[in-house]
Every structure is written in C-alpha cells, then in structure tokens.
Amino acid sequence: MPSFRYEATDALGKIVRGTIDADSERGARNQLRGRGLLPLSTSLAARAEGFGASLRTRLSDADLAWLTRQLASLLAASLPLDAALSATLEQAEKKHIAATLGGVRDDVRAGHKLSTALAARPRDFPEIYRALIGAGEESGDLAQVMEKLADYIEERNALRSKVLTAFIYPAVVACVSVIIVIFLLGYVVPQVVSAFSQAKQELPLLTRIMLALSDYVREWGVATGAALAAAVALWRYALRAPAARR
C-alpha cells in the first residue's frame, strides 16, 4: 500500500503534516476527513522523496544510540512523546538525524504510533528495534524499554569498537606483508630468475612456481586487486542493508 504525504488543518485551523497509507490519493483524503482534518494537499511519498531518501545518509549505530538515549531520558522525565521528539530534534546536530526525526515526529503528530513511524524507515531502524518499541507502547512503559534499548546499543557499540581496535594491528601487518610479497614477486623474483635463465639450467620446481606467480602478479595484479576491492565493498554494503541489521 503506497504512502502519501499530506498537509491538512484541524478543527482549530492548525496546520498538520505527516504521512498516511492509502490505496489512492482519494482514499488518503477520505481518511483525513474521517480523522476530522481538512486536507489541503496530498502527494505520493515515493515520488516526492523516494530517490532522495535512498541517497540520504542512514542513521549509524552511534546516531541510533544517541537518539534512543535522548528520547529515553525525556520520556522518563514524563514529557509527552511529541514534546520529546521535538526536543531531541532541536538538539540534533547532524542533518540526516534531524531529517529522520522530523519525519517521525510528523507521522506521530498525524496519529500514527511511534513503532509505525519507525517501520516506515527500515534503513534507519532495525526490525528488532521497532518490535521492542512496539512492545513498549503496548505495555505502556515506553520510557523503560527505550532506556534498556539505549543501554544495549551502547554496550554493543563499545564491544564492536574493542574488537575493531584489536584487529587493527594484525590488519596493518597483513597489508604490509601483502605489499612486500607483491614487490618481491613483481620486481625481485624476475631479476633473480633471469640469472638462472642465462645459465641455461633447468629451474627448480619452487623457482618455477615463484616465476609463475610473478608473471601472474605483473599481468593480472591490478585486475585482481580491483576485483577484491569491489567484493569487499559489496560485502560491506550488504551488511549495512536493512535485512542484515535485523
């Protein structure tokens, strides 16, 4: 079912903006009238922002931890959800966080649950995150659930940082080793082998293997490196996809 962006006025004449799911634009307007709103404009959300949304920077794990902690603290202080979202939006220093929060707040103001507003943004909010938020809404203890979520995300980020730090030194050593091997195969080995060739002696098996590797590096080294770099880039992109974050 498509989503529609709308702008409408309520009974007091206040402008209300948000998104609504409907089979057609006419259906969206009928739903708005059923809520007591007077629709001013409606447009298909995918046309208005589909391409731009795909290019927008998604929320990182650090962004999600900050956002969740801020909302948890404000909700624990008994602020309404709308006010908590607005306060967090004002404190957001990154444009992509503000853009995401602004859309969530608009949907909440339009009458959607927070979990529903998050579900419309699967690139930013993993499925397990949305499910726990929904459970918190159903139990009436959203503040505590978000507090636990913030703790979990922060602990996970800290553990990931430690693991990455532990792998930095081995990764550097491995990269330097690969560079040295490539240099030996591409430059040193051919010069050494040429001395054997001039002596017209049969080369040992190990030497022939090294020579074959040297030829491969010189002929296909650049192409192989580019293919490996592309494979790593695709692998990282796949890990960041919404399905991989569930």
TrEMBL record:
Any one GO BP annotation for this protein: protein secretion by the type II secretion system
UniProt key word Membrane: yes
Classification via InterPro entries: GspF/PilC, T2SS_GspF_dom, T2SS_GspF_sf
Coiled-coil spans in chain: none
Topology with respect to the bilayer: Multi-pass membrane protein
UniProt domain Type II secretion system protein GspF: residue ranges: 68-190
Membrane-crossing segments per the record: 166-189, 220-239
Leader peptide range in chain numbering: none
Keyword terms: Cell inner membrane, Cell membrane, Membrane, Transmembrane, Transmembrane helix
Stated family: Belongs to the GSP F family.
Name under which the protein is recorded: Type II secretion system protein GspF
Protein species of origin: Alcaligenes xylosoxydans xylosoxydans
